[in-house]
Amino acid sequence: MLKEYKNELFQTLLTHEIGIDNLEINENFKAIFPSLSGSYVNGLKVSYKPMPKMQFVFLERPDSFELFNIASVKFTPALELKLNQPSNLHNFRQGLEEFKLWLVKDLKGYIREVNEIDLWSTYLQRKNANDITTINYADQSNFSKEETESIKIALSELKVLINERYTKNDVQQQIVAHHIKYLTERVEALSKTDYKGVLINTFISICIALSLDSQKGAELMQLIIQVFQFSPGLLHAN
Asked: What is the model's pTM?
């Protein structure tokens, strides 16, 4: 693609509300489209970093800098890269208008769906999580199947909240993920009493690894209480 056109595409991305940092350009895209000679076709691809499968491609012609075929992933259940229909050639301005329409209709539609709260799923999770309030952590027996699932749901929710509020980079998120994975695995192996101790010690380790000060450490402990619906007494040895 000519630099003039790449610069115009860049300006479009730079000013778009989705944010240029959330989009990636690959000038070395190659794919086979049966209706386009059946051989590899080069192109410039714009993809959405959080979901790289969402992509829009300007397919280049070997005989012209001015004409393009257009392919994109529409916001449909298939999420499949296909030639836009009708698959006739576009000049760059026409292709750019197709791209702007894709940003508004398909990519923003996908983002809205991802960010939309699933009320039914949330209801079921909360319903299951209510089982946590009935767990007796002085009991030396193992967790029941229902209790185990409730704790796993709470841990998953807690990981999201910790990353949103306390982590600053990918390394810290990996640390949190490692500790949450450990707690998820141990819930099936330990007694209720032993798990309580491991839970508390693990989150103390998270506070240290994230270099949380005393105030943020206390906030994190309160977050644990909120998510697990424990009484504050959980954080003290019996």
From this structure: 0.52
**pLDDT tens per residue, range 111-127:** 888 877 665 665 555 55
How far is CA 142 from each of CA 138, 139, 231, rounded to the nearest angstrom? 11, 8, 20
In this structure, the answer to whether residues 111 and 166 fall within a common structural domain is no
Beta-carbon contacts of 199 under 8 Å, excluding residues fewer than 6 positions away, are 183, 224
Q: Is 209 exposed, middle or buried (0-12, 13-18, 19+ CB in 10 A)?
A: middle
| 128 and 229 fall within a common domain | yes
**Residues 93, 144 within the same domain:** no
Eight-class DSSP state of 144 = P
Q: How far is 34 from 71, CA to CA, in rounded Å?
A: 13
- Alpha-carbon distance of 180 to 203, in angstroms, equals 9
CA distance 7 to 123: 47
pLDDT level of residue 82 (50, 70, 90 thresholds): confident
**What CA–CA distance (Å, rounded) separates 146 from 130?**
10
From the list 106, 90, 105, 88, the residue with the least C-alpha distance to 5 is 90
In this model, does residue 105 exceed pLDDT 90? yes
Give Cβ neighbours of residue 41 (< 8 Å, ≥ 6 apart). 30, 31, 32, 33, 59, 60, 69
Q: Domain check: are 61 and 158 in the same one?
A: no
The domain boundary, picked from 80, 115, 150, lies at: 115
Domain that holds residue 126: 119-235
| CA–CA distance, 61 with 85 (Å, rounded to integer) | 17
Residues 6+ apart with CB under 8 A from 189: none
* 110/132 same-domain check: no
